[in-house]
Design brief:
- By secondary structure, the protein is of the alpha/beta class.
- The protein has two domains: 152 residues, P-loop containing nucleotide triphosphate hydrolases (Rossmann fold), CATH 3.40.50; 67 residues, Helicase, Ruva Protein, domain 3 (Orthogonal Bundle), CATH 1.10.8.
- A five-stranded parallel β-sheet has the order 2-3-4-1-5, with helices on both faces.
- It starts with 25 loop residues before the first helix and ends with a helix.
- The relative contact order is 0.14.
Length: 232
């Protein structure tokens, strides 16, 4: 993303679309890929509980957009208390808008009005818009009826948590991407003893990567066991 964007609009590192393990969420991933390939206006709505990869998909989508020569803006609305609705002004200039955790601004009149206005400007400008929330648009406690109707415009996809077998694949892929080898035995050990949501697993892989580099060791079972015990 542009270096001129505010910090809140910059992407989280190491989250690429091609690294997303879809599991049962293949249709949602395909919809996002098609959204990039098609001209706007277009909209996708992703919902699901914490840890299913919504933020990963948005960050990866923005990165993929920029590889195609498109401009993209990512806004984490979970940080709305530290932001201001005025940040939405002018975002329709971007080819792709990625608004994460829209449930965080539900019931806040200034944010709802600003988001409603952005929807209208973005659609008039032919932009692509992807929104995530913890529930579908009908369940969101949005007070502004017109905004609720705009949210329902997007093709809805409910993301499901990965089954254990796919989480094992994710751990192995993350290790390989870092130049490490992770045996099925060690991957299973991690999954049986660490928090199973995706953000926690990815954070753990970052920690193991740093520790392995510092100690010049591989991800053997004794080393991983040592690191997990040290983190308790």
């Amino acid at each position: 993303m542009s270096g001129q964007l505010p910090l809140a609009l910059r992407l989280r590192p190491q989250q690429r679309l091609q690294d997303f393990v879809p599991g049962e969420n293949g249709q949602a991933l395909t919809a996002l890929q098609q959204l990039l390939a098609a001209p706007g206006p277009a909209q996708v709505y992703l919902s699901g509980p914490v840890g299913v990869g919504k933020s990963h998909l948005l960050a990866g989508l923005c990165g993929a957009a920029e590889q195609r020569g498109l401009s993209a803006a990512y806004l984490p609305l979970a940080d709305a208390a530290e932001l201001h609705p005025a940040m939405l002004e002018g975002l329709e200039a971007y080819d792709l808008l990625a608004l994460d955790d829209v449930q965080a601004i539900a019931g806040q009149a200034d944010w709802e009005q600003a988001l409603f206005a952005l929807y209208n400007r973005a659609r008039d400008a032919g932009r692509r818009l992807v929104v995530t929330a913890d529930c579908g648009p009908a369940q969101l406690p949005i007070q502004l009826p017109d905004l609720r109707s705009r949210l329902a415009w997007g093709e809805p996809y409910r993301l499901k948590p990965l089954p254990d077998e796919d989480k094992l694949l994710l751990l192995a892929d993350e290790a390989r991407r870092r130049g490490l080898q992770l045996s099925p035995e060690v991957a299973r050990y991690i999954l049986d003893r660490a928090p199973r949501d995706l953000p926690s697993l990815l954070a753990l892989m970052n920690r193991l990567d740093d520790a392995a580099l510092a100690a010049q060791r591989g991800l053997t079972l004794p080393f991983v066991r040592e690191q997990l015990l040290a983190g308790q």
